[in-house]
Amino acid sequence: MSTRARTTRLVGLTALGGSALALTTLHVLEPGFSPLTATISEYALSPHGWMMNVFFIMLALGSACLGPLQPTDRPARQWLLAAWSAGTLACAVFPTDPDSVPTTVPGYVHSVAAMLAFTAMFACQIMHAIRAKFRLPSIATMSGVVAGFASSGWIGFGAGERIAVIANMAWIAFMIFATARRDPASEHLAPS
Fold it and tell me: Is residue 49 in some structural domain?
């Protein structure tokens, strides 16, 4: 395993861990936000809102680290991972709007970036499930995302979104771990 691949994996997993820590900390520090109805982006409107930006930036960084670990003969997956990472980063740069005010340009950009990011990640997982030898992680994650958003009508959109975000974070971490089991000298870096 090359030093570059080892470093990329370490940075990716550390960033994902940092994003999970930031999101968990926000849930503890801001108990007034309902995890059932409030979206995670709404934490940016709280006194500890800077931690929401840390979450988005760390998630974007951790996700971006998976791209170079993907097989080079699968450029579509790399582009989709880049789109997810860029959309996640855009969510940090353009904050959401409070429900009580009309949508602003930054709030609109935030919403569109989030939708495009989720769509890109879902497409990436579909491509992986079709081409991979070990499809279960992608199928399980897609099921979690669909279940999260489909159930948001009766459990609350905030809860559905959290299920989808956690499922995506788990998939990214799994994929980074899975690349560590391959020998780049003999085959591609990531599960194909």
Answer: yes
Give residue 159's identity as a one-letter amino acid code: A
Residue range(s) defining the domain that contains residue 12: 3-179
**CB proximity list for 89: less than 8 A, separation 6 or greater:** 56, 57, 60
Give the whole-angstrom CA distance, residue 16 versus residue 56.
10
The model's pTM is: 0.85
Percent residues over pLDDT 90 in the chain:
44
* Element at 123 (helix H, strand E): helix 105-131
Quote the number of domains for the chain: 1
Report in angstroms the alpha-carbon separations of 117 from 109, 112, 113, 120, 142. 12, 8, 6, 5, 14
Is 51 part of a structural domain of the chain? Answer: yes
Q: What is the pLDDT of residues 165-187, one digit of tens each?
A: 988 898 899 888 887 655 444 33
